[in-house]
Design goal:
The complex is a heterodimer of chains A (about 200) and B (about 130). Chain A is about 70% helix and about 5% strand. Chain A is built from eight helices and two strands, in the order βαααααααβα. In chain A, strands 1-2 form a two-stranded antiparallel sheet. Helices cover about 50% and strands about 5% of the residues of chain B. The N and C termini of chain B lie far apart (about 35 Å). In chain B, a hairpin with a 6-residue loop joins strand 1 and strand 2. Classes of the chains: A mainly alpha (about 200), B mainly alpha (about 130).
């Protein structure tokens, strides 16, 4: 086993843009002074998630939904292996992490679109309640995801946060992805900047 | 004792029917009276509070920054430019009908514009002003 490239640039950049956008949106959620920053940071979360959907079909091997979306049986098996303190090693996402991704993408898009509708007065008061409920649900999934990353990192003896920065994880050489897809990452940046600007205006 | 008005607000917000401005005023008056015997709300003090320049926040030094000189006016948000409906019940019957919403906006806007939480007396005066202004 050696260090191989697993996460392409769009996966890593998208991940951290979403983290930044989500944190900023939380911090500015109750403020009228920072309302524009809130709208923009929330838009970053939606636009990254919207990019991630097609990237889950055309991205590199471990970015694809078929690689990490597993049935409930696999999730239960993985969680059992975690409880035994001997988690199964997955070169890409583990089955629990896979569901965290699906949920966070869905919640990121739903929360953001409801927020956008509120901002443009496309609905009544109920949108506000829904927006807050979805955001709180997303925060809960974030906490579960972070707890899973920390416990998985400790039990595997592999720093998964660092892996999401450098793109490298342990694996055999033939499992490595051939390219980090930097051009797609540039496209992601341009798309997020342009689409967020449009959404927040 | 301070928990009681909060519980009243919560229960009121859980009830399906809308509250009247009078009922919302009573909630704050009861809370203010428990701190200050013989308290009576004053629309005039509420008016003065509405116009006071707190100057804590550069973009929103006063209530009037977003709500104009009269709460009867529709207006624009000082930061986003988005439409803000009139605050006064006379111009917007939806105002002061949901205690939880009233408390939420006092919470947010007092913190950012006044620079601290508003007192129950200030809230009672403000609610009196918004329900009476014509």
């Amino acid at each position: 086993m050696k260090k191989i490239l697993v996460w392409d640039w769009p996966v890593r950049l998208g991940h951290w843009l979403m983290v930044g956008g989500f944190i900023l949106a939380w911090l500015t959620s109750e403020s009228e002074t920072w309302r524009l920053v809130h709208a923009f940071s929330g838009s970053v979360v939606i636009t990254v998630a919207l990019f991630r959907l097609p990237w889950g079909f055309i991205g590199s091997r471990y970015a694809r939904f078929v690689d990490f979306v597993r049935g409930p049986g696999s999730v239960v098996d993985y969680l059992r292996s975690l409880i035994r303190l001997d988690p199964d090693h997955h070169t890409g996402h583990n089955p629990a992490g896979g569901w965290a991704i699906v949920l966070l993408l869905a919640l990121g898009i739903a929360t953001g679109l409801v927020g956008w509708a509120m901002y443009n007065e496309l609905g009544g008061e109920w949108l506000e309640e829904l927006h807050e409920g979805l955001a709180a649900t997303m925060l809960t999934v974030v906490f579960v995801h972070v707890a899973g990353v920390i416990s998985g990192s400790l039990l595997h003896g592999e720093n998964l946060v660092q892996a999401m920065i450098t793109g490298h994880k342990r694996g055999s050489p033939e499992e490595a992805i051939p390219s980090a897809r930097p051009l797609a990452a540039i496209f992601l940046l341009v798309w997020v900047a342009a689409a967020s600007w449009w959404l927040a205006n | 004792m301070r928990a009681i008005p909060a519980a009243v607000l919560l229960l009121a917000s859980l009830a399906s029917h809308a509250e009247t401005p009078q009922q919302i005023r009573q909630i704050y008056v009861a809370e203010a009276a428990s701190q200050q015997a013989g308290f009576t709300p004053s629309a005039k003090r509420g008016d003065a509070f509405f116009r006071q320049r707190f100057a804590i926040n550069d973009k929103m030094p006063a209530c009037t920054s977003c709500h104009t000189d009269s709460p009867l006016n529709a207006s624009q948000h000082a930061v986003t430019g988005k439409a803000v409906k009139p605050l006064a019940v006379a111009a917007n019957p939806d105002r002061l009908s949901d205690p939880a919403k009233v408390e939420k906006w006092f919470g947010r806007n007092c913190k950012e514009v006044v620079g601290r939480a508003c007192t129950p007396a200030e809230k009672a005066d403000f609610v009196a002003y918004l329900s009476e202004v014509r």
